[in-house]
Task: inverse folding
C-alpha cells in the first residue's frame, strides 16, 4: 500500500539487453559502489550472484539496470522507459571515460593500492539529481542518519522500479520532492536547512542536470549557485555524475585526517593540509583520495564517536 492506494505490480516486460567487454579488469563493486547510499538503499541492490541492480530516473523516464560480469564480459539488462538510455551509457557508467593512466603514484601506499586494485575506474552516471539530493541529505550529519532519510523518503515518495526486482524503487521526480510536506521531512530526520536546499534544487532540476555534460569545474560552479550547496556537496555530486577525477571533497569530517595520516602521519590534518599533501596529484586528487580510502590505512580513533541526533523526536 502506498499513500492509501494498493499498488499491484504489473508483469515485467522483457528487458532490453547489451553485452560489452571492457579492455581492463572490471571490478563492479569498485566502479558502482559509490552510487550505493548504505546497505538499505532502495535504489541499489547487490544480488548473491554478484550482479548489481540499480534503479534511477533518466531523461527518458524511470529505468532499472542489472549488470553482471561473466568471464570478462558485461551482460546488462534494462527495463522501463529509461532502459535504452541506461544501456547506451553502460560503458561510461563502468568507467570507460575514465583514464587511470593519467595518475602517477608518488607515495608507496598509493602505488601498492593501485596495483592491488587494477579494476578501479571512476563511474560517470550522466545524472546529477540522483547524486545531488542524497549528498545534500548527508550534509553535517552522520552517514547513518543520511542513509535513513534517503531510504524513508524514496520508499514513501518514489515509485516501484520497472522490471522484476520488487525491492527496488526509483527516486521521486522533482515535482514530488517539492510537494513533500514539512512534517514528513521532520519524520525522516531532515532539518529545515537541508530540506530547503533540496527544494531550491528541484525547482531548477533541468538546469542542474545540464551540468552532467559540463567540465567538472563548470559543473560545480553551476551547482554552487544554489544557496545551501557548497564545495563539499558539489564535489560529492560531480564525482559520480561527471566522473571527475580531481573533485576532491573538502569540508569533510573525516577525510583530511585520513589523507594526512596516510601520506604524512598527520592524524589531525585539516583541509588546507590535505590539499597541500594532495597537490602532487593535481588533476587526479579524487582518485588519490579513493586509493587512500581503499588502502585501509586510516588513523586509529582517539575520541568519542559523533553522536547522531534525531529531530523526529523533537
Result:
Amino acid at each position: 500500500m502506498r499513500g492509501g492506494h494498493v499498488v499491484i505490480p504489473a508483469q515485467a516486460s522483457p528487458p532490453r539487453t547489451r553485452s560489452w567487454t571492457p579492455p581492463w579488469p572490471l571490478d563492479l563493486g569498485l566502479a558502482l559502489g559509490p552510487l550505493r547510499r548504505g546497505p538499505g538503499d532502495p535504489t541499489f541492490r547487490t544480488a548473491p550472484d554478484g550482479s548489481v541492480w540499480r534503479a534511477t530516473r533518466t531523461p527518458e523516464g524511470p529505468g532499472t539496470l542489472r549488470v553482471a560480469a561473466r568471464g570478462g564480459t558485461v551482460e546488462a539488462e534494462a527495463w522501463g522507459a529509461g532502459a535504452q538510455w541506461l544501456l547506451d551509457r553502460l560503458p561510461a557508467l563502468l568507467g570507460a571515460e575514465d583514464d587511470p593512466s593519467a595518475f602517477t603514484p608518488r607515495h608507496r601506499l598509493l602505488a601498492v593500492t593501485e596495483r592491488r586494485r587494477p579494476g578501479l575506474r571512476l563511474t560517470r552516471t550522466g545524472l546529477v539529481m540522483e547524486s545531488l539530493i542524497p549528498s545534500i541529505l548527508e550534509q553535517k550529519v552522520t552517514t547513518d542518519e543520511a542513509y535513513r532519510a534517503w531510504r524513508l523518503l524514496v520508499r514513501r515518495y518514489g515509485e516501484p522500479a520497472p522490471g522484476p526486482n520488487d525491492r527496488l524503487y526509483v527516486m521521486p521526480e522533482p515535482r514530488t520532492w517539492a510537494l513533500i510536506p514539512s512534517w514528513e521531512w521532520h519524520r525522516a530526520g531532515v532539518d529545515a536547512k537541508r530540506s530547503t536546499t533540496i527544494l531550491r534544487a528541484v525547482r531548477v532540476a533541468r538546469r542542474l542536470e545540464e551540468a552532467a555534460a559540463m567540465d567538472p569545474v563548470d559543473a560545480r560552479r553551476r551547482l554552487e549557485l544554489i544557496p545551501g550547496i557548497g564545495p563539499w556537496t558539489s564535489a560529492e555530486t560531480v564525482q559520480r555524475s561527471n566522473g571527475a577525477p580531481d573533485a576532491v571533497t573538502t569540508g569533510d569530517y573525516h577525510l583530511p585526517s585520513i589523507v594526512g595520516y596516510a601520506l604524512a602521519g598527520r592524524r589531525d590534518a585539516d583541509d588546507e593540509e590535505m590539499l597541500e599533501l594532495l597537490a602532487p596529484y593535481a588533476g587526479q586528487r579524487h582518485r588519490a583520495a579513493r586509493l587512500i580510502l581503499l588502502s585501509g590505512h586510516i588513523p586509529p580513533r582517539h575520541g568519542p564517536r559523533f553522536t547522531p541526533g534525531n529531530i523526529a523526536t523533537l
